[in-house]
Amino acid sequence: MTINPDNIILFEWGWFRVNATIFVTWIVMFLLTFGSWLVTRNLTSEGSLSRWQNLLEVLINGINDQIREVSRQEPRIYLPFVGTLFVFIAMSNLMAVIPGYIPPTSSLSTTAALALTVFFAVPIFGITQRGVLDYLKQYFQPTFFMLPFNVIGELSRTLALAVRLYGNMMSGAIIVAILLTITPLIFPVIMQALGLLTGLIQAYIFAILAMVYIASASRAHEELERKEDR
What we know:
This protein is mainly alpha-helical. The chain has one domain (about 5-230). Helices cover about 70% and strands about 5% of the residues. It has helices spanning about 20-40, 50-70, 80-95, 110-130, 130-135, 145-180, 185-230, and strands at about 10-15, 15-20. Strand 1 (about 10-15) and strand 2 form a beta hairpin. Helix 4 packs parallel to helix 7 and helix 6 (about 145-180) runs antiparallel to helix 7.
């Protein structure tokens, strides 16, 4: 049984190749885009709200509360990025209930791509909030000689994000595959349910860690100023 979707080639023409990871990612993106259009096309602020609008507002309010709690800042600027990360990863993992479906998050290429978006989002948000010079100054704290170590720290946490999500999703798929060969009736169902819960938790953890990294880049100057005032 092939667990890594990168190894499943669905279409190949010369150098152009589409594997299961890319194909399933396109499906998830399409479902999210189409579902967003369906939910938001009849939004209203008066009268009774539809069940889908209620669900959407609960989701957005929940993400806003988490961003505000982590960053201590207004969540409006961070919501599109962090919310998209959470919804995409959660949707990718929850669709694992479909027979034959392999989550794109069980591919290291997908988790690495998601981690890279966070890697580039951190300086973008940091520079937007603080300016170029003030943001770059943190890499020389507390002394100039800490520059290479601070850069390595940025790279290592990006690697940790990718490997953590990939490892958890991959290990869950392997455990279910093993249980299917040993006890094909009861335990795989239980493990599948636990896998869905794990998928949601992993989506939450990934989004929260991304917000922590972004918030640390945006608030570092405030903490430094408080220390200097003391």
